[in-house]
Write a structure and sequence with these properties.
CATH topology: Arc Repressor Mutant, subunit A
Structural class: mainly alpha
Number of domains: 1
Mean pLDDT: 92
CATH class: Mainly Alpha
GO cellular component, one term: cytoplasm
Helix content: 40-55%
Family: Belongs to the DsrC/TusE family.
Order of helices and strands: HHHHH
Keywords: Cytoplasm
CATH superfamily: DsrC protein, C-terminal domain
Protein name: Sulfite reductase subunit gamma
Radius of gyration: 12 Å
Number of helices: 5
InterPro entries: DsrC-like_C, DsrC-like_dom_sf, DsrC-like_N, DsrC/TusE
Low-confidence stretches: none
Largest sheet: none
C-alpha cells in the first residue's frame, strides 16, 4: 500500500492506480460505477495536465457535458460525504489543504 497521510490521502499522487482506487472506494463505502470512473479519470487527467487538483466546479462542468443541469447534484450523489473527502481521496490526490469543504 502506498504511503498515505493521517486522513488516508496519498502522499504521492503518482502512486495511484485503478486497483488502489477500488480499495480507497471500499474504505469510503462506495461501489465504483461508470460515473465514478468518469469523474476519477477526469480528475487524474486534469492533474496530469495542470499539476493541480481539479476544483469541483471543473468536474461538474465535465459531467454537465453528459448529464446537463443535474451534474452538480450527481457529483454529490456519487460522493455523499463531499468532493474533497471522497472524490479527491479515491482519485489519489493529496488532501487539498486550502479547501475546507467538499
Amino acid at each position: 500500500m502506498p504511503e498515505r497521510d493521517a486522513e488516508g490521502y496519498l502522499v504521492e499522487p503518482a502512486d495511484w492506480n485503478e486497483e488502489l482506487a477500488q480499495v480507497l472506494a471500499q474504505e469510503e463505502n462506495i461501489q465504483l460505477n461508470e460515473d465514478h470512473w468518469d469523474t476519477i479519470r477526469f480528475m487524474r487527467d486534469y492533474f496530469e495536465e495542470h499539476q493541480v487538483i481539479a476544483d469541483a466546479r471543473f468536474v461538474i462542468k465535465h459531467l454537465a457535458e453528459r448529464m446537463g443541469r443535474d451534474a452538480q447534484k450527481r457529483l454529490f450523489d456519487l460522493y455523499p460525504y463531499g468532493y474533497v473527502k471522497q472524490a479527491c481521496k479515491i482519485a489519489g490526490m493529496r488532501h487539498p489543504r486550502a479547501w475546507s469543504t467538499g
